[in-house]
Amino acid sequence: MSRQLVATFCHEVNSAIRNEDALKIRSILVLEPPFANPIYYELIEELRNEYPADDDGSEDRLEEVIKAAVTETGEGQDEEGRPVQSWHHMVVFLAGWLTFIRDVDTSQLLKAYQAMSDVQSKGNTALQHPIKGILVLPTLIGYAQIFARLAVALDRQPELAQHVIAASEGKEGESLAEKAANVVRQGFLTCLSDRNTVPGGIKDGRPDGKKIGVYKMANVCLKILFQSNKLDNCSMIFKNIDAASPPLHFYPAGDRVTYLYYLGRYHFISNNFYQAQMVLQQAYTDTPTHENFMKQRRLILLYLLVANLILGRFPSERVYSRPEAMFFREIFQPITQAIQKGNLEAFQRMMNLDLSWEYAAKLCRWKVFYQIGNCCEILVYRSLYRRVFLLAGKQPGPMDRAPPSLDLNAVVVAAAYLETRASASQAKTHSNGWSFSNQGLPTPPSYVDPDFEGMQGVAPYFHQFDIQEIEGLCASLILEGLISGYISPKLKKLAILGTKKAGSPVKAGFPNLWQVLSTKKREQAGGDGVEGWVKTQQAGGGKVVRLASARPAGS
Amino acid sequence: MSGAAQGSAATTKAVVDDKSKNGEPAVEKKPAAQLEEDDEFEDFPAEGTQALANQNWTEEDTQIPGGNTHLWEESWDDDDTSDEFAVQLREELKKLGQTK
């Protein structure tokens, strides 16, 4: 067979470069079999015959042919007569693409991954050309998405890749997914640091030059890192964005929403719930409501809902009635009810670490179970103190000078009672999170570390509330601003302050949770700024990102 | 990576097909089956000609009925001392002489 087809493809690519048609280049350099156009199979056939994989010289010969045919990769001039350096890396990239389609076997995931990594890296280098690099950007974004899928698929079958991970040079335990994220990140950094743009990187209301690819590339990296559970490694991407990206709102809605979803989840996992809810609220508000996007809306809403829950804001009827909130009511209403009533028993049952609650495993899979268990418990306690204050608090008469107060011993009684009930084995929790039985009280919760189970002389630990613990908890709640008052350590009483101003003792003693928590978080963060969310144009048109100082995602 | 062309086609389709448009969702399946869902955040559809910047969703596309306000309850403190939970708690406190 003649070399006709390689030449034809080269000719096509050459015209596309000359016409500055990046989308045409993407449409030619398809990567993933099966190919819709049979000509690709003829091309592969030709490659196998003329440039066989087992011939070491094949790739060099291909490069020579490409270099001669794709003349646009040579040195030249731009429209204004300024010299444009040669684009040798495009030649290497094209040869890489040809050898990739020649050799790819989709049944061999690991081999395909390695070949993909190679062609992606070559594409990254071609992207770096200051003038022409942008012409491979759409191609490279498409490749990155395929590469991400492959990396995640492999990450879920670690047995396939064990020896490769073991052999990785010096970077202990770096997974294939992390390696893939690092490769894609190079392309992301090239887009971010493109200096061939107008100052600020925004031209006519649109990102200029390679900056258009910033969030698409970032989203691919984030997708890989999230799907392979490397959430900690995302912070470098957000730092890079903070340092050099044009404002997010100039980007297409799909890029924005996807990016905000990952950013919100990152803040969520970092316990920055206030930032998480701001980011996710924006993502939720910006996502179209039609059913094609239901899955995205549901995931955004899920983390938005939990972030709000932890900050003392509950979903309204409007949220629960949304189609994307299907079954959220069944899952979250028992939790909000327990918080609302101070029902420690129901809360502890639902958040039991043995995952015995019917939705516990689901919450675990969503990676919100421990956050709810840890962060909402304090809200339950706050409501319990409030509830006991309503039932047993001392509210002085009009002539009385003493402030309203609560005997903390009453809280000990209530907490101990509820905790003991929570430990009742085999007891079922009603859908409303509360079940009473008239049977005698079960024993208090006991604990033996599994390591010591069955050993002689090891007595189980029984937790029981005492006045010290209840006093300590109360002090924490006061310190956090969730209760407004002071403790008399001598009398073991909580005294409430500011009744006159607030209108009633209970309002004074137990200020609105969301108000307290959101104000505090905002103050801690120094305002409504969020790391990773660029809202305004940066001075000087963005800084230069120094690749040398960029840390790989896995390190 | 445009989404506009696909997006608008999808909207039209959704309007025609969607049984759940007015109020209640049409799905009444078992919770467990419904809860088995993937947690992967899918890419937004982005095929088409204007590949890099064409997901121009309008405000109309993203509005939920009644608007995006009042999604969250900020005041939910419960002062009811006559519900079952409160009654049981009061009983317990009474037993130990802790009620007022």
Automatic annotation (TrEMBL), chain A:
| SMART domains named among the record's database cross-references | PAM
Q: Which InterPro entries match?
A: Csn12-like
Molecular function via GO: double-stranded DNA binding; RNA binding
What protein name does the entry list?
PCI domain-containing protein
UniProtKB/TrEMBL annotation, chain B:
Mainly localized where? nucleus
Q: Which UniProt keywords apply?
A: Nucleus, Proteasome
InterPro entries in the record, alphabetically?
Answer: DSS1_SEM1 (IPR007834)
Q: Where in the cell is it found?
A: Nucleus
Some GO term, biological process aspect, for this entry: which one? double-strand break repair via homologous recombination
Does the keyword section mention Nuclease?
no
User: What is any Pfam family matched here?
Assistant: DSS1_SEM1
Q: What is this protein called?
A: 26S proteasome complex subunit SEM1
Say which species the protein is native to. Didymosphaeria variabile
Q: What is the phylogenetic placement of the source species in the record?
A: Eukaryota, Fungi, Dikarya, Ascomycota, Pezizomycotina
